[in-house]
Amino acid sequence: MIKVAVLGATGYAGIELVRILSSHPEVSIEFLGSKSFSGQKISQVYQNFEHILDIECKEIDLDEIAKCDVAFTALPHGASKTVIPDLINRGLKVIDLSGDFRYDDIKVYEQWYKQEHSAPELLAESVYGLCELHRDKIKSARLIGNPGCYTTCSILGAAPLLAKGYAKTDNIIVDAKSGVTGAGRGLALAYHFCECTENTKAYKIATHRHTSEIEQELSKLAGENIMISFTPHLIPQKRGILSTIYINLNQKHTTEEIAELYKQYYKDEYFVRIKDAGQLPETKHVAGSNFVDIGIVVDERLNRAVIVSTIDNIFKGAAGQAVQNMNIMFGLDEKTGIDNAGFYL
Amino acid sequence: MIKVAVLGATGYAGIELVRILSSHPEVSIEFLGSKSFSGQKISQVYQNFEHILDIECKEIDLDEIAKCDVAFTALPHGASKTVIPDLINRGLKVIDLSGDFRYDDIKVYEQWYKQEHSAPELLAESVYGLCELHRDKIKSARLIGNPGCYTTCSILGAAPLLAKGYAKTDNIIVDAKSGVTGAGRGLALAYHFCECTENTKAYKIATHRHTSEIEQELSKLAGENIMISFTPHLIPQKRGILSTIYINLNQKHTTEEIAELYKQYYKDEYFVRIKDAGQLPETKHVAGSNFVDIGIVVDERLNRAVIVSTIDNIFKGAAGQAVQNMNIMFGLDEKTGIDNAGFYL
Amino acid sequence: MIKVAVLGATGYAGIELVRILSSHPEVSIEFLGSKSFSGQKISQVYQNFEHILDIECKEIDLDEIAKCDVAFTALPHGASKTVIPDLINRGLKVIDLSGDFRYDDIKVYEQWYKQEHSAPELLAESVYGLCELHRDKIKSARLIGNPGCYTTCSILGAAPLLAKGYAKTDNIIVDAKSGVTGAGRGLALAYHFCECTENTKAYKIATHRHTSEIEQELSKLAGENIMISFTPHLIPQKRGILSTIYINLNQKHTTEEIAELYKQYYKDEYFVRIKDAGQLPETKHVAGSNFVDIGIVVDERLNRAVIVSTIDNIFKGAAGQAVQNMNIMFGLDEKTGIDNAGFYL
Amino acid sequence: MIKVAVLGATGYAGIELVRILSSHPEVSIEFLGSKSFSGQKISQVYQNFEHILDIECKEIDLDEIAKCDVAFTALPHGASKTVIPDLINRGLKVIDLSGDFRYDDIKVYEQWYKQEHSAPELLAESVYGLCELHRDKIKSARLIGNPGCYTTCSILGAAPLLAKGYAKTDNIIVDAKSGVTGAGRGLALAYHFCECTENTKAYKIATHRHTSEIEQELSKLAGENIMISFTPHLIPQKRGILSTIYINLNQKHTTEEIAELYKQYYKDEYFVRIKDAGQLPETKHVAGSNFVDIGIVVDERLNRAVIVSTIDNIFKGAAGQAVQNMNIMFGLDEKTGIDNAGFYL
């Protein structure tokens, strides 16, 4: 059994990790860190866990955590930086759900996060944990920068066109819609039920940090420097991201041809499901699962591909992918513990 | 492996069964019956199943179904009656999710369902599959009448007070609120999104069929003939039933005492979770799970117990309990395949 | 034109007042008090008011407010007590939306609110502003205790049976369901979108303050001391309260007879709509309006009336009724400015 | 008083018309046409109208309708074509909410609607009723093609950049999100509550009819033939459309400059509200009102404007704009009866 610690266990990404790990057949949950709820049982903070998991939440205690094999750090951006070097030094593998270890270039991090990076040497070593693109490096990594939710959805949606040279790269637009769990459990007026329900809005246009993460990966895939428009929206549902991606094609293609390109590109990827021409994904098809569903329409009038990519933002976009990373790092079947159908209902 | 057939697989109860069974370690899904979608793959009808389950839905074919060990029948009320005798004759165990096999007294069925019963001899043999109350009979049953959603929630919420003689029985009121999956997938104006969202209503006051099911079981527990008020309400959410039950006590008791009574009564029941005094259940604690959460408040001014009982209507209230029944009938650990925490999010 | 001040204008009851008053033909909004948003225009705090109302929110300034004819005080329970005596002394009429001036008996207030009353002499003078029951006293009142949302809905639902002597009074149960605007705009984890949506729960069973308000009014109507069970629930919608009220009848009656009793009792009440036998109200029928919709079912098996009463909690249950009170106090047609159909959609 | 008929009164656009007209001070509702509910009172079909409007719904009766001054036709696409010529001949003004009379070029209509146009001569005469752009022609029109919901929102969002020559016209992308009222009241599995809630999806990519309407108007504004990408999405709310519009600028500009351009362009338009730089619109700011809220961000890295435009799809996007058209046609103040703040809550 793999002994795991979850730090930041009572946030939404954290508790989804706990939920997934609690039925993972190869895992033993040993430590749950929570600043806000230390001293309380997890089954009191999230009463859905009564009779399932009774562990007490604790302040971070490095000595105790050191007995684990792997730590998932779902701490506020920045907070994880002080803890993670210690854990690495003590020999744990770390899968970090913050933005701190997702970058190839420290300058990009510092530009978009508006702060100095506190562990540049670890950043250099860390692996970007987008499993479908970086599986080989993940296998031997000590430290994973687990990708953002918007970024997982958007990068996987665009990857084949860029990797295979079908895309004109100067007018790529990603228009993304996210459920409210993506905003986390912190209190803010914007997330009050009466402010969220029956409401849709865009936010952080042209400035959202995930822009830089998407650009980094698409640039690598295309072999050139790419800048995109990325617009996040908040929609009145809990789970789900749907990215609508607009990419001009550099020569004429049909929907069927591009769908076939995608099927070939992802043919060995269990968690990526490409729709046949004429079908489109919906967030309810992936909610509660680790799947990425992608549909394609080529607008032949404009020679433009419109790609719709959808994931569950806290599953494949956070906790589920973190477990997928763990499975890869520990040599398990990648699907272990995350091989379930979505909720739909 | 237990070979199972699900008839009526594409309704909401049916597809929840398929979802649960698809990750049940001792089950092999062999046959999916669907009148509306025969010829289509289940993963096309419910695209959350793509890569998980690829079986084609078929019209009912008794010869093919006969190869199974057990059939779950989630057919419209009445429709199951013609199929079930045949399946029983061919040696299958049957767990029926309709109302047809839930009654001890055929007259009660015919009075509330306004139709003749077509298989009286099977009704006489069938066992009411409320696992926590009838486990022993379920073990050896060939035919289970799987309980209704409202009834599971309400009976388990009231049972200890009646079984242990704490209740005055002439003013029992069950005020129940249900999510919309309880209404099924059929089309009706009342279930159009714009008619349901931001709306709450009561319906079928004093005439809902589940009244008779609750009365049957509470009467048996109390050892006397009981009539109750039962009022169902439709609330704007998918999953969840919450029953608020009002029972006058026949002598003075505190909340703590009644909570303790409940804990004792259900001390061996894994799927029943009794809240400590001062805590109350919420539907999100049970959504996506087989748990029944029960909270108690005694209003000492009135010497009246207010019991709040909640389940997921399509899990413990339908598909999950059906699997729990199967586990009992086949000698498996009762929790097999349904021992997960609820979704919460 | 009636010059009005709204104190606490940026809470949910306050802003609904502003919305209604902004299209009231006989009103001029002169002052908007808001502690949290003083210095900001109301059209910035609630951007739906841009081009409609551009007044700046201010800290309470008694001299400026004194120029008004009437003040609506939608301040936190307790806070209004210090301001209101001053306004009354300066000659304004005051319609207070807190619980402070709703009680006939100061002891009841102090018992349920767990604090001393700071203005007992004003409490003695104040009038309980349930328009349909106390219209005559409202006409000449200087200070109105505007009723609570649950109480308006529940009292009007039960009144005819008690006033006309049809009710047994010892087993009255009010099971009420409320949308989330009823909880106000304050931040709390319980009102985070992700905690509220897809969730229903009961709260404050047997201890909610509105219990005492309902009991006060039902006791007066019945001419005897009545204690009831009152159970509030939170449901995942913004607007709407639906109270399901159980009252044993002291002799046999049909649904039609009781419906007729209600129609007679409310025959001059424009804002009360009694459903014909066989029809039941829904919250979407009243959302955004000042109407109270009431449906009746007599369960003849039990000789028990089940009354379903519904209002919009922040309209008839708060802001709309406050305006109705103002209309009565200033001799306007009672319907002025609040005579619109509900939203439905 | 203007005598009005509403044909198709019981669909969602129709009933919103009835709701608005029922409190319009210059209107008398004389005829409500409804095929599905003929013979029933409107207050039975939509019970929010009880005590407000008691008219019976009828099958279309041209003689009776002929007594009116104006008819709003909210009939299924195509059905209105047979009725409208008759009404025009009888001297009524007609405001048609279908797509039949929105086109300058019959070929465009026939290409996108896949059917012959049945009244080409009326199409030639009809005026496209986007009030902010075609007010002068509307004044004297007999027949208005009331714009689509997506189109109103999207055209007004893009108009200033195109009219003023700031836009590169070859990469215009409109990514639009709509509430479910936009789909109408007809029954379909896709609009079942349980299929819609907690779900977002794109549909009819590159083929939605509103594409052609947007292209027609943007082309006229720009003085050149424009083709765009238009992607509609369905989001889990009742009211509201939010269009996110991407337009490359043909020279460098700041957000402030473009916001100023918009403010100038719409400086006389009461119903268009331009956000200051740094602010963005939300659907809840416009729900229940006739306003169009528009926010602007210029992504200076890409020299691309991202415009967010939002309306209430059944108010400004259908019924409210229809009333605005009527006001203009009958010489009333354009704001009459539609000058209310949005609901927000």
Q: What is this structure's SSE topology?
A:
4 copies of one chain form a homotetramer.
Chain A: E1 2-7, H1 12-21, E2 27-33, H2 42-45, E3 57-58, H3 62-65, E4 70-73, H4 80-89, E5 93-96, H5 106-113, H6 120-125, E6 127-128, H7 131-139, E7 143-145, H8 149-163, E8 173-178, H9 193-196, E9 201-202, H10 210-222, E10 229-234, E11 241-248, H11 255-265, E12 272-274, H12 283-286, E13 292-299, E14 304-311, H13 315-329
Overview of the molecule:
4 copies of one chain form a homotetramer. Chain A is an alpha/beta fold and 345 residues long. The first copy, chain A, folds into 2 domains: 2-125, Rossmann fold; 150-313, Dihydrodipicolinate Reductase, domain 2 (2-Layer Sandwich), CATH 3.30.360. Helices cover 33% and strands 20% of the residues of chain A. Chain A contains 13 helices and 14 strands. Chain A has helices at residues 12-21, 42-45, 62-65, 80-89, 106-113, 120-125, 131-139, 149-163, 193-196, 210-222, 255-265, 283-286, 315-329, and strands spanning 2-7, 27-33, 57-58, 70-73, 93-96, 127-128, 143-145, 173-178, 201-202, 229-234, 241-248, 272-274, 292-299, 304-311. In chain A, the strands form 2 sheets. A 7-stranded parallel beta sheet of chain A has the order 3-2-1-4-5-7-6, sandwiched between helices. A 7-stranded mixed beta sheet of chain A has the order 9-10-8-11-14-13-12. In chain A, helix 12 (283-286) links the parallel strand 12 (272-274) and strand 13 (292-299). The mean pLDDT of chain A is 97. Chains in contact: A-B, A-C, A-D, B-C, B-D, C-D. At the A-D interface, strand 8, strand 9, strand 10, strand 11 and strand 13 of A face strand 8, strand 9, strand 10, strand 11 and strand 13 of D.
